[in-house]
Amino acid sequence: MTQTLPPAPAPPTETTLLVEDLVVDVLTEHGWATVVDGVSFRVARGETLGIVGESGSGKSVTCLSIAGLMPPRQTRVRATTLRVLEHDLTALSPKQMDDIRGPRIAMIFQEPMTSLNPAFTVGDQIAEVLRRHEGLSRRAARERAIALLDRVGVPSPQRRYRQYPFEFSGGMRQRVMIAIALACRPDVIIADEPTTALDVTVQAQILELLRELQREHGMSVIFITHDLGVVADVCDRVLVMYAGQIVEGAPIVELFEQPGHPYMEGLLAAMPRMDQPAGELASIPGHPPRVGAMPDGCRFHPRCRYAEDRCTGAGSPELVRLGPTHTTRCLRHPELTLRGTP
Amino acid sequence: MLKFFAMRLLTTVPVLVLVTFVAFGLVLLIPGDPAVTIAGPDATVEQVAAVRERLGLDRPVVVQYWDWVTGALSGDLGTSLFTSRPVATSIGDGLPVTMALAGTALLISLLIAVPTAILSALRRGTWLDRVATVGSSLGIALPSFWLGLVFVLIFSLGLGWLPATGYVAIEEDPAAWLAHIVLPALTLGIAGAAESTRQLRGSIIGVLQQDYIRTARAKGLRARMVIGKHVMKNASVPLVTVLGLQITALLGGAVLVEQVFGVPGLGQVAINAVTTRDLPVIQGVVLVAVLVAVVCNLLVDLAYGYLNPKVRPR
Ligand SMILES: Nc1ncnc2c1ncn2[C@@H]1O[C@H](COP(=O)(O)OP(=O)(O)OP(=O)(O)O)[C@@H](O)[C@H]1O
Ligand SMILES: [Mg+2]
Questions:
Q1: Does A175 reside within a domain?
Q2: Which of A66, A100, A316, B286 could form a disulfide with B23 if both were Cys (CB 3.0 to 4.6 A apart)?
Q3: What is the reported pLDDT for A274?
Q4: Considering the domain boundaries, does residue A275 fall inside one?
Q5: Is A64 in the pocket of ligand 1 (CB under 6 A)?
Q6: For residue range B72-93, what is the model confidence (pLDDT) as tens digits?
Q7: Range of the domain at A117
Q8: Which residue in chain B has the smallest CA separation from A184?
Q9: Is the CB of A69 under 6 A from ligand 1?
């Protein structure tokens, strides 16, 4: 066996991120409570995976846990598998995780106004990533940072490099955040509601920029949002989260045309129409369960118009397949015909 | 930044003028005939006349002020009534000693406060944090002269590690200087250390919860960088405010500590001058002390400008 084999051709859909059975507990006043419960998914190279769900459903916690960014002493993160390319994240020390964040996983957050450090220039905050991970000199990092600012559409990047965050508008700051995330050409970018805080026109520009960059670099993107309109716009596939669990997963067209879970049907029904101003989804009657007080059976049953006796008992239902790429966590799915949007 | 510096420097000019009024005005505050008061209760008529003559108290106040200010500008603060030494010489002897003492005290207090505050903020709620919190409450509550005496008892009389009193100039023998200055500086700095620890711990805890710290960690920066760069630059802003207040307190405290440890600083000069009613020396000491405070506050403002880009003019 001394012969060297030619490198195996990459499979057509290389998995960049694989998550299996992620469970996250957080410390609350009443003790430990599970806020993410058995989340599993994979993301392929070049794919955009959307995660939707009401506030508090565990979208951010899922992503922060994958990136190792939950506060260690108030959280417990467990998973059967957490894998980015060949890196097994469950086996890495905090220091080794520092090497993953940046070049492998990068993040963009919701709050562009507070996510940049007010005490340092914008340029410094981009350049320091390059210096940290690619060992660039001050000068080389500066040049790359200016090129990045230019790429993400910040005008006169030479001058802007030396300015502070307070001299930038919200949209421009979010472009800077994107430049930071993009700096080391990560395999996976997690964007946690990157446009929620921006007004509609700026939002459209930022989405377009993200789409372009993804095409250019072939990154995987996880896109968290409240806004189903945005999901339809940018995502290939979507996970629907409710009360810490994935309740449905499907390719975008299938999900919108034939939702497999009553919760998703409710979200679609609550979606603002073309002729109405965009808003947040809120009009499913009732409230999601509080952390640490999950209902028995299906967690959605107290709000579900199709709920029956069997939905209320003995453990939450399993996630089952509706088709090759479509899953749902509903006991009644074979008998229900749920309404989507054309 | 340069423009900021120049602007700030300009605004100190009126303050300086005011300072000269205050220092000089001391003579006007003396009730009755200043010459009689200064010469003392047992003075003869000739002695009182001599004092009046020496101080020029018989001339109009404006002329006296002008003479004093122009003299001060050229480094002449008059001569002591008691020792006949030039006031500038006495101050020149005492000031460097007091500055060294206050500077070392500040350094020691920061060397204690910064690591303690960082550890205690990062390990919030652990025994280490509790020890630091109790320690800083004690440090603030205990009077410094008492601490000084305790230190002397332990480190000089008990263990014999350090001299109890006296002072050696740094240019004479650096090792001996250090040995002599450690206890007084520690005594002087401990209250400030405690206060800075408490302030800094609180602001670090606040900054750690900011979104931009999460961003810094999301970039994969090492913990050392996240804390040392991103946390500390923001958390230092309130610390600088506290330090600005402490510097003035430090100068006042130095008077006391110099007495306890027999350090020949400006405090000693001041106390001698007050007990002997040596007016020119008192005026000189007040002028210099206020000048030092003004310069320190200028430095504090510059530190603000560095730490917080928003306050810089553009
Ligand atoms: N550090 C933490 N300590 C305690 N509880 C937390 C912590 N972080 C999140 N939680 C709780 O975990 C639950 C899930 O929160 P998460 O932020 O993931 O929701 P989300 O789906 O991102 O909501 P949103 O749409 O509002 O961003 C919430 O109930 C939240 O209160
Ligand atoms: Mg969130």
A1: yes
A2: B286
A3: 55
A4: no
A5: no
A6: 888 887 777 778 788 888 888 8
A7: 105-185
A8: B219
A9: no
Residue B11: inside a domain: no
Ligand 1 pocket, A294 CB below 6 A? no
Distance from CA of B271 to the nearest CA of A (A): 45
Inter-chain residue contact B215 with A115, CB threshold 8 Å: yes
- Reported as a single tens digit per residue, the pLDDT across A83-129 is 999 999 999 999 999 999 999 999 999 888 899 999 999 999 999 99
For position B109, which CATH number holds? 1.10.3720.10
- As given in the structure block, the two tokens for residue B39 are 């010469």
Residue B189: domain span: 93-265
Any domain includes A164: yes
User: Is the CB of A106 less than 8 angstroms away from the CB of B310?
Assistant: no
pLDDT at B239 over 60: yes
Our count of domains for chain A comes to 1
- Amino acid at position B3, single letter: K
Count CA atoms within 13 Å of residue B23 on its CB side: 24
Identify all chain B residues contacting A177, using CB atoms and an 8 Å cutoff: 215
Q: Please name the member of B210, B220, B307 whose beta carbon is closest to the beta carbon of A114.
A: B210
Into how many domains does chain B fold? Answer: 1
User: Does the structure's ipTM exceed the value 0.85?
Assistant: yes
How many other C-beta atoms can be found within 10 angstroms of the C-beta atom of residue A167? 15
**What pLDDT, in 10s, does the model give residues B255-267?**
888 988 888 989 8
Query: Ligand 2 is a single-atom ion; what residues have CB below 5 A from it?
Result: A 60
Whole-angstrom Cα distance, residue A210 to residue A212?
5
Which residues of B are less than 8 Å from A114 in CB distance?
210-212
**Residue A196 falls inside a structural domain:** no
Shortest Cα distance from B217 to chain A (angstroms)? Answer: 7
CA–CA dist B52, B58 (Å, integer)? 6
Alpha helices per DSSP H over chain A: 59-66, 94-100, 122-134, 138-151, 157-161, 170-182, 200-217, 228-234, 252-257, 262-269
What is the value of pTM for the model shown? 0.85
CA B246 distance to own-chain centroid = 7
Tell me the chain B residues in contact with residue A119 when contact means C-beta distances shorter than 8 Å.
Answer: 230, 233-234, 307-309
